[in-house]
From TrEMBL:
This is Metalloprotease TIKI. The keyword Transmembrane applies. GO terms for molecular function: metal ion binding; metalloendopeptidase activity. One of its GO terms (biological process) is proteolysis. Its EC number is 3.4.-.-. It comes from the Eukaryota. Its cofactor is Co(2+); Mn(2+). Keywords: Cell membrane, Glycoprotein, Hydrolase, Membrane, Metal-binding, Metalloprotease, Protease, Signal, Transmembrane, Transmembrane helix, Wnt signaling pathway. GO terms for cellular component: plasma membrane. It is an enzyme of class 3 (hydrolase). Pfam families: TraB_PrgY_gumN. It comes from Podargus strigoides (Tawny frogmouth). Its main location: membrane.
Amino acid sequence: QQSKLNSFLWTIKRDPPSYFFGTIHVPYTRVWDFIPENSKKAFQQSHIVYFELDLTDPYTISALTSCQLLPQGENLQDVLPRDIYCRLKQHLEYVKLMMPSWMTPDQRGKGLYADYLFNAIAGNWERKRPVWVMLMVNSLTEVDIKSRGVPVLDLYLAQEAERLRKQTGAVERVEEQCHPLNGLNFSQV
């Protein structure tokens, strides 16, 4: 059955070979069992691993956070139509109320609290650009909350690469991802 799975692995035929693997930003536990052995073997045998972004670098995380913010002095209620802003605010209040019931016993056992998790995901939402708020809202579902605390596939592989002392790097800078998203106008968002 493993041989029938699409591996999303491309091989660049050279000596030694290079590989290109397409990942998705979901908790690795949702997809790990479906990643074919040839992809896992290529990762294990590689000495150098490059990722889309270096998610283990504090600068990358800080820059991602900063790029999501509206210009100084602006708030989301200044740029969203009033009815949408009010619906968003009500929805976030609903999510905050529901979040304790969405969390798993395992999350609670690890000391993860609903208020902390809500603030980690939605904190400072009134200062974020609409496109980033949209992405944030899309991740505030029961299924996504239940998988919080599990690294996304990209981060899991980066952590594994570090653990295995592989040389790592990134093919993109934060700005290359951030600026196109921030360039979308309101109707596109």
